[in-house]
Design goal:
The protein has helices spanning about 5-10, 10-20, 25-30, 55-65, 95-120, 140-150, 170-175, 180-190, 200-210, 225-235, 245-250, 265-270; strands at about 40-45, 50, 70, 80, 85-90, 130, 165, 195-200, 215-220, 240, 260, 275-280. It is an alpha/beta fold. Strands 6-11-10-9-8-7 form a six-stranded parallel β-sheet. The model has no long low-confidence stretch (mean pLDDT about 95).
């Protein structure tokens, strides 16, 4: 998920967020600012972290008024620090006031995910393991949250259900067995698609290997079970570790030597990064 792809699909979602916040009018702003006046407001970091979502932040204001201008001093993926001035937004004061919360909601949420991902990815430095996100995202926020994972140094797992084959426990239950699920997936899907199987025990791992799975996800296994599973796989499939993986648990998984570690916590448990728009002033 890169910035171009995100922004190509962003407008409808951002407009929905603006409509949620301004159902008919911004009555407070309209009460105190009844006509156009140009102004500027500063974007300030109130915590250390990694920035993500600056183009989304800007787009909120330009959807309200295309003439809004920006002086932004940082880029997505860069570290920011408590008290740092990150830039300014310049334009119609009514737009600055009405767009403030929606713009900050996006930027704080995305920067929080980038920060948490960055901290988690640092624990994997020096290994070949790739850190992945999951589909455990906020409804209507996936495109922004998965972009933020990449900005923080992580990688994206499949974007949605159309993007890849992942045979989980209920798919296997519906098919009848791991073997049948993999066979049916190979029959249905284009040959260029990799087939991943979620395995919860060693017997499922053995069956997935014999069925020809391309990736085997070791789901909610103990450390010793995962070691045994990797020995059973013996390089015949790529390996992914998953299941309640948080930042605090990642370092203990490095010695396994899996290809991927997927963590829903990157998107569902990252706290926001505290950012603020302050010091609004008229420009004569």
């Amino acid at each position: 998920m890169n910035e171009i792809t995100m922004m190509m699909n962003a407008d409808e979602l951002i407009l929905g967020a603006l409509k949620e916040d301004i159902s008919s009018e911004d009555v407070t702003t309209n009460a105190v600012m009844r006509e156009y006046r140009k102004g500027a407001v500063e974007l300030i970091a109130k915590q250390d972290g990694v920035l993500a979502g600056i183009e989304v932040f800007k787009r909120v204001f330009t959807l309200l008024d295309p003439s809004t201008e920006f002086e932004i001093d940082v880029k997505d993926g860069e570290e920011v620090f408590n008290g740092q001035r990150l830039g300014a937004v310049i334009g119609d004061i009514r737009v600055l006031l009405s767009g403030e919360r929606t713009a900050l909601n996006y930027l704080q949420r995305m920067s929080g995910i980038a920060t948490y991902t960055h901290e988690t990815a640092k624990l994997l430095e020096g290994s070949k393991i790739k850190l992945l996100d999951t589909r455990k995202t906020t409804p209507n926020m996936r495109i922004f949250e998965k972009y933020a994972v990449r900005a923080g140094g992580g990688s994206n797992h499949r974007y949605n259900l159309s993007d890849g084959i992942l045979l989980k426990d209920n798919h296997i239950g519906a098919a009848g067995s791991v073997t049948d699920a993999v066979r049916m997936a190979k029959e249905y899907a284009p040959f260029v698609r990799k087939i991943e199987v979620e395995a919860e025990n060693i017997d499922m791992v053995r069956e997935a290997v014999e069925a020809g799975a391309d990736i085997i996800m070791l789901d909610n296994m103990t450390h010793e079970e995962m070691k045994e599973a990797i020995a059973v796989i013996d390089g015949r499939a790529e390996t992914e570790c998953s299941g309640n993986v948080t930042k605090e648990k990642v370092a203990a998984l490095v010695d396994l030597g899996v290809d991927y570690i997927s963590s829903g916590a990157l998107t569902h448990s990252a706290p926001i990064l505290d950012l603020s728009l302050k010091n609004l002033r008229p420009i004569d």
